[in-house]
Amino acid sequence: MPKIPPPVIILAEPQLGENIGAAARAMANFGLTDLRLVAPRERWPNKKAEAMAANAGHVIASARLFPSVAAATGDLKLLLATTARDRKVAKPVLTPAEAAKRLRAAAKRGATTGILFGAERAGLDNDDVALADAVITIPTVPDYASLNLGQAVLLLGYEWFRVGDKTTKERIDHGKGAPATREELFGLFGQLEDELDKAGFLYPPHKKRAMVRNLRAMLHRARLTDQEVRTLRGVVAALVRDKALRKPREKS
Known about the structure:
Oligomer: single chain
Number of strands: 7
Shape: globular
Largest sheet: 7 strands, parallel
């Protein structure tokens, strides 16, 4: 069994109760217990999920519901998203084995971690992928890259468990600060994007969403600490305040 906190498993808009149950069963096989569901299509609690979970009923019973991916991942300091599709947002692409190493290294430092899975039919959309620090792609034959949700959770759970104490130390020094949580990063994103929108930077309108995703990807790659997030938010606030104070003098 893992000796350090395992990653949270987040299923975004899962469609079938059976697939949720299969994912829960896979989690239990490898010591994963925290299951978070984002807007499942079928009513919850779900009898089909409970039946499919077999002896993993404790994972189903403790599963929590969330209205959005942002809400489900706000407390996490490292979030990896699974996807088989090419993305326009530049993010590190990891194999399951490398992802397991990073998750364990972060957990050993006390960081809360999670793996995000998309819906069975369409996977994750670009906005949800933009919230993650990196992308996990499971190698498959090019002509058939789609995996069942339970299978994908099983593969990632297996890699997490297999790596065990063999994990090497991750070469990232956060100094005295702790890695920022999703919630802290979301606060920075919201403040910065709001002010850029007011300043007319996010223009033209049809490119706004892509610009926001790219901006978030840049900030994710910086691996900001909680103190750095507070500093950047203070910088943004100071620039806006200074601009407001200078306006009367410019008119006089």
